[in-house]
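Recap quiz, item 2
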Amino acid sequence: MSSALGEFEQLVLIALLRLGPDAYGATVRREIETRARRELSISAVYTTLERLEQKGLVRSWVGDPTPERGGRRRRHFELSPLGARALKAAYQAFAGMTTGLEQRLKTL
Amino acid sequence: MTKIALAIIRLVTPRVSREWVIGDTVEQLDYRAKSEGTSAARRWLLRETLRIVLAAPGHYLSVRSRTHTPPTVHSPGGAATVAATWQDVRFGLRLLRRSPIFTLVAVTSLALGIGGSAAVFSVLNAVVLRSLPISEPDRFFSVTRRHPTESSPRFSWPSVQGIREQLAGHAEVAAASAIVGMQLHLEGVGHGVAGERGAVQLVSGEYFGILRQSPLLGRLFTSADNQALESHPVAVISHGYWQRQLGGARDAVGRTLTINGTPFAIVGVARPEFFGTNVVIRNADVWIPLMMQSSVRYATGASSHGTADSRKPWPPQPLVAWLTLFVRVPKDTAPSTVAAAIAVRHHADAASIRRDDPEYIDRLMSERITLDPAGQGLSALRASASTTLYVLLAMMTILLLISSGNVAGLLVARAAAREREIAVRLSLGAGRFRLARQLIVESLLLGLGGGMLGLVIAMWGRHLVVALFAGGSNPIVTLDTGLDWRVISFAIMVTLVIGLACGLLPAFRATRGHMVESLKGRAVLEGRRHLFAGRALVVMQMAFCLLLLVVAGLLVRSLRTLTAGDLGFDRQQVLGARLDVRSLGYLPEQRHALYQRVLDRMQALPGVVAVSMSLNGPLTTSSWLSGIAVDGYTPGPDERMQINEELVTEQYFSTVGLRIVNGRTFGPSDRGLESQPTIINETMARRYFAGRDPIGKRWGYSESMVRGSQAFVIVGVAEDAKYRDLRGAAPSMAYHLSGPANDVSDPLSDLEVRTSGSPLALVGTLRQVLAQIEPRMPVTDVLPLDERVARLAWQEIIVARMTTIFAGISLLLACLGLYGTISYGVNQRVPEFGLRLALGADRSRLLKHVMRDALMLVVAGSTVGLLLAYAAASSLGNQLYGVGPLDPIAYVSAATLLITVGLIAAYLPALRASRIEPMTAITRN
């Protein structure tokens, strides 16, 4: 997978990593909203997740109906090995670029 | 709300993702509600819905690509069309953002037009179209007594009770008085001595029940509030009054409200949406039980007959009709059945009191009863203002057409400028339909922007329209002109139509183009091809503009005839004032002493020529109508002998400037006479004493009265004058001399002062002197008589003023359109003109050429406009007074104005054409 990850794609992948087995649309969105402090729509989350799935970076399956969602099912997502590698590569690139700059970035 | 939002989300989400998207949204809503509260969560849902709608095309694309179908923009249908249209929208937005001035001008002119029409429409909606905010308004009726010669909506309280008994178990019955201004004084709220004016309505205990109302605070009235005369000192206040005067205080119930001097306990507050049964600018602030009529000295809108004594309390008297009767008819019952039952009871009741006034009872017996739908509320405003509102709406719509003509013109010019881009896209295989759609999407976007901004303008503009109708500075308005679904759909409809109309022409023009020529760059003489569409637009604008100019001219001329004409009075140098003597609660002797004090003090002021008082006064909206009998006059079979009566003090005729044409005026010798001297006017003399000398003749309210010692004796004939109705002929009038021996229930309420200088100079002194005489007496409307004419003609003034403003704006817009089109044409033809000049053409001939071109457009527009104007003017009908729909002055001056201003607008580009430098022009391309 040669193509670089978009910024929003990175945020989504990190959210999947953090959430583990709890990752589905609503939790991914909540994770990004609370940590990255940006309000976004659920369809933007799904659009990105579906694109990532096409690229083979993400896998998904449909869960059982739950009562708090009015009996609707959830679609769960998780990182694929390819996705994990892409995320790692992106992180390493970012970390490499920012090494030694931590203080300055904070005071910008 | 939540359901609607979820339905929208469901609608715009691809089917494969629907389940989890909705599920996640529900879950998140729940989560937000728990952490931030329900209302914050709801607001979030609104934002989320909007975001999902905006992101929907992208979502569709991602889903489609997952199923490996390549997206095609050429095949219309399904998700591809959605995505492609979305692309158009985004492309359109980008283009509009790139030319902010164009966008601003276009959106603003559309917004003004759409906003203006929506504002007028929202008032029209409130006054004419909307139902009362009550349940099942279509089962709610008012009752009218119909007689071949006259109809009356009024019933006496005993009659209402009889009818309620008759209908018990079949239909509900309630009664209400007119809404009148009274002096209100709230305990603990400072207003000065006299308190403030408020609108009060007297109602039966069933009133709120029949309207299915529940209180916001405290209680509303019930049948228990109808029991005994003068012993229900309780009041329900409107939500608006509660907010205005009590600041929405929770402890409002139980406080004391003094109405015309009588204390009432506030027992309840009505709900905010409830405004009663009348659709008027200012509705009732306070409702009180009708049993309290005499306690608050209510004395409006009654007809009394025979043995009735209007000085005694009205509720027990069967011959004083003063209440509007409302009926709620159950779904399974026909209104006609109820009407028949009411008629039976009405006639039976009338028969039982026959001895009291046989003539009147005979008439009652021949009356029919009808039920009139009252679900929209009763409205004098509706009857009087709906024509005005429709005229305003029509004018506003025409203005909107003219301004959208300008926007369409701008779009045509833009499309022409983008010809090369369009040609490139065509040659690369873009479909013509797709291109046209793109242009239409662009103009719809402009329309949408205009529509949204227009709604904001309407929110604010509707108050302006209502204020126009209410008159006065800072009036209290309780008319609810809220933007309901009707107004919103009106605005959406107008927006769509205008958006489409503006876009169709350029879209059609642009995509019909010749690809190859456009790609090559244009030939020297080829520019004209673009002009036709723009020129057609200008002709249309000119036509509509002339229509507005002619209508404005007709209305202004009609208004002038109406208000500047001779009304009979000598209106110059007379100051009038309204005095509320009734609220003082004086005995008859005290009143007459007060009148005398007022007259004496006023007469002694420097600059005062004459002073008088009268019951209703000249050029006010009150009148006193009576059926009469005249000595030596036999009426025809169905003839109604009805006149206006007026009660005046001795100097009335000299004060208001009415000459006595026969006999004499009132004098000191008439005071305390046994016989009752009256002065009649010329119209009454002509009608009842044709060919006879009326002096010394007798008349009265019935044949028996004419023969008895109580008859009125005519001592003089005064000049005719118009009193309430400026349009019709002067009414028959009879004047009585006011005095203790001639006291009616109503006190004199009008003061007239003839001054030697400007009447306005006396306003302050007049108020001062009146306050010294009786500080508790409310004094209102201290105005010269000329101003009263303006108040009577307020509707005509509004329409004339608004139409003139609209016509002015339309003239400006239409000439901008003309200027733009001519200017654009000259620009297109710069190379041609340069060539002509180089070949030896005369500069002045070029100028003339362009001017002739412009003149042709203006004349063509004016010709069409004259025809339109004639059609419009003939439909104005009774809006015109003293001016025919073909009034030449209006037409000629409108056409002259339009042509002059049009030529001025065309002169600048024409001048530019004549100053072209041949060399630079030819080498420009």
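The CA atoms of residues 45 and 121 of chain B lie 31 Å apart.
The first strand of chain B starts at residue 140 and ends at 146.
End of item.
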